[in-house]
Amino acid sequence: MAATADDIRVRRMRGVFSTESSHYLGFGGTRRKVRQQIFVMAEELETGDFRIQRLNRNFLPSGPIRHIDREELLKKYVPEPSIYMNKVIPIMRRMEETVERGDRHRERCELFSAEFEYQTALGLDENHVRATFGLGLTYLERHEVESAELVFRKLIRLEAAFHVEHKHLFNEFGIQMRKLGMYPQAMKYYARAYHLSKDDEHLIYNMARTLYEKGSSVISRRFLEKALRMKPDFEECRQFLDYLDAQEAKTVGAVIPPPASDAGPPPPPEP
């Protein structure tokens, strides 16, 4: 049976390519030119352009991502199918399995085993996003704030951490920081995420929660109203606003401040 146009579009090119880079070492009479072979993973996008990422010493895609067109790829790079089949695919499979083991351990609250698996993964690729998130969440769940802070600083620098495919992870990380009272860190983290994803009403809602718990109810309300404008049927957001309205009405109408036990239920959980 002949392939359809849809089938052809789905079969995008993906593989390893190489190029040569040269630079000079030494000075004067000892100066010499050194050539270095560089391997990259190239993935074809829907547009027909390619996303390329350099392979690290373990043959894993790592570091900054560049976009080039097909003409540049075929002109400057040489296909390396054996490297892709014999090096990259096995190590990527191993990485995936290691991170998944870490995730399973963390879900079962086996936090030291989870840390071991995430650290093993990061030994293969120090910038691996899921492993970095997993390690940070593990520290947060163990209430090891200083260790979590170090991971947080690393995540802030990793632009790939804020890509759409990791949205659930950066939301979970921010929520855990908020629950530990790490409000400045959570807001800085959410602000970084917001810079890259301004149309995410759930992110804005979680920023509102953090601001509320930090004591900034007025600003929290503005964020909630913004999230509700973006999604009018956002029920958790509407409940939170109703809660704030009730609290304000109670404060204005009371002759004597109500006791702490009469503060009402906490805001609804994160969506």
Give a nutshell description of this structure:
The protein is α+β, with helices and mostly antiparallel strands. It contains eleven helices and five strands. The two termini are 46 Å apart.
Considering DSSP H and I runs of 4 or more, what fraction of the residues is helical?
A: 55-70%
Given the structure, what is the number of helices? Answer: 11
Proper CATH architecture of one domain: Alpha Horseshoe
> And the CATH topology of one domain?
Serine Threonine Protein Phosphatase 5, Tetratricopeptide repeat
Taking pLDDT < 50 over at least 5 consecutive residues as the criterion, the unreliable ranges are 1-9, 254-267
Question: What is the highest CATH level, the class of one domain?
Answer: Mainly Alpha
Cα(first) to Cα(last) distance is: 46 Å
Mean pLDDT: 84
Structural class per helix/strand content? Answer: alpha+beta
Q: What are the salient characteristics of this protein?
A:
5-stranded antiparallel beta sheet; alpha+beta; 57% helix; 271 residues; Serine Threonine Protein Phosphatase 5, Tetratricopeptide repeat
